[in-house]
């Protein structure tokens, strides 16, 4: 049986007995009609279901902020669940909220729904059975697993049985190498569940810009024989670290895109940290990764710049992409055989809500990401 918790609206608690889904639905109806203007009509809008697994209350609050920051074109029913296992009596605490807005040209408010579950006791061992009845039928299901993928994958396996797409953020991992290996194993073993990484989304402007410049024919000919690579990372302390997972994903993508040999890079014990060689069809190419302490406003390990150089039949060429000092633009510098081209483009805001929205636009498998992820494992042993 559900109990109201004091005067706090939208909060339901179940102890012992199973959760009453009908009561949750009734509470959502009441909340949709309880706006400050007492408007008579409000409609639920859900294009998909989003399950968020948060390992603690702090992560659950972070997830709530990310969902609130998502563009309004992504209406959903979201279930944020935190499990507190133990042998005690099962208890399910559900905090319900609706987020409503009136789209231009419409009289009705459109509402998205959020359920924040804290599951304690024996029920925490069976989160799948708690969450599944709360989903809107016949809609895609996304699972956002915050933090590290678990070594005991019982809960993950149960939740992914229903999910169409699993989303993680390797930048949040406390063990990036293990996280990438575990993620690659999931991609390899689970054909039924597409997988995405918010760290891959962070690299999207860099990948897109590099591919656009590859369309310049003179540059493509100059880069036919790849000769050197230089990458600069932020050595700041702002927020979470993006590397080494982000760096390895970038190197994995470059390896696949430019046809490097599918083999580990070379780094001898005598090589300085961050210096190694990449194997290509044309032989060995020099590579260097260094950190820049000036970028204190960026998470440690964030990509600051990259430079690719090559030699083709018609001479040498290079492309450099770098963050500008305001951290809001990418500056492109192209050295062709007969000309030098420069330009700036604005980098879209990549807060967590927008990155999550980018992953929610995808349903099928991302083969480009999966290949980059597979190859990223080759670079994990590097000393950077």
Task: List the defining traits of the structure above.
Dihydrodipicolinate Reductase, domain 2, alpha/beta, ten-stranded mixed beta sheet, 384 residues, disordered N terminus, 11 helices, seven-stranded mixed beta sheet, 17 strands, 2 domains
In short:
Helices cover 27% and strands 32% of the residues. It has 384 residues and is of the alpha/beta class. The chain has two domains: 2-163, no CATH class; 203-379, 2-Layer Sandwich (Dihydrodipicolinate Reductase, domain 2).
CATH class of the largest domain: Alpha Beta
> How many beta-strand runs?
17
Report the uncertain regions. 1-9
| Class of secondary structure makeup | alpha/beta
> How far from one another are the termini?
56 Å
Name of the CATH architecture of the largest domain: 2-Layer Sandwich
Residues in helices, as a percent range: 25-40%
What is the approximate shape? elongated
Q: What is the typical, i.e. mean, pLDDT?
A: 82
Distinct helical segment count: 11
Elements, N to C (H/E) = EEHEEHEEEHEHEHEHHHEHEEEEEEHH
Q: Radius of gyration, rounded?
A: 24 Å
Give the number of domains.
2
């Amino acid at each position: 049986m559900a109990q109201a918790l004091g005067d706090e609206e939208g909060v339901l608690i179940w102890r012992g007995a199973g959760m009453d889904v009908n009561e949750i639905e009734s509470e959502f109806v009441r909340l949709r009609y309880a706006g400050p203007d007492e408007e008579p009509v409000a409609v639920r809008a859900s294009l998909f279901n989003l399950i968020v697994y948060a390992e603690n209350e702090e992560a659950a609050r972070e997830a709530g902020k990310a969902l609130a920051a998502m563009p309004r074109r992504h209406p959903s029913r979201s279930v944020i669940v935190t499990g507190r296992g133990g042998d005690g009596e099962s208890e399910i605490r559900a905090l319900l909220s609706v987020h409503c807005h009136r789209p231009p040209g419409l009289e009705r408010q459109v509402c998205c729904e959020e359920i924040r579950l804290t599951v304690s006791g024996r029920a925490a061992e069976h989160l799948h059975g708690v969450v599944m009845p709360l989903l809107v039928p016949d809609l895609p299901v996304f699972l956002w697993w915050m933090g590290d993928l678990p070594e005991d994958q019982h809960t993950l396996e149960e939740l992914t049985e229903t999910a169409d797409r699993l989303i993680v953020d390797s930048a949040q991992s406390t063990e990036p190498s293990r996280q990438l290996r575990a993620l690659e194993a999931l991609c390899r073993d689970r054909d039924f569940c597409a997988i995405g990484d918010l760290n891959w989304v962070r690299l999207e402007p860099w990948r897109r810009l590099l591919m656009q410049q590859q369309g310049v024919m003179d540059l493509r000919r100059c880069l036919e024989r790849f000769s050197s690579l230089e990458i600069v990372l932020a050595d700041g302390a702002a927020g979470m670290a993006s590397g080494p997972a982000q760096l390895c994903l970038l190197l994995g993508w470059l390896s696949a895109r430019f046809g490097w040999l599918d083999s580990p890079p070379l780094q001898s014990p005598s090589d300085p940290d961050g210096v190694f060689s990449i194997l290509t069809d044309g032989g060995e190419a020099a590579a260097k990764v260094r950190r820049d302490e000036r970028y204190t406003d960026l998470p440690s390990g964030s990509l600051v710049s990259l430079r690719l150089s090559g030699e083709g039949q018609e001479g040498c060429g290079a492309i450099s992409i770098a963050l500008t000092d305001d951290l809001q633009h990418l500056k492109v510098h192209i050295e062709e055989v007969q000309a030098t081209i420069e330009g700036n483009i604005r980098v879209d805001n990549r807060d967590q809500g927008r990155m999550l929205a980018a992953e929610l636009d995808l349903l099928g498998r991302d083969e480009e990401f999966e290949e980059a992820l597979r190859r990223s494992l080759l670079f994990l042993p590097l000393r950077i």
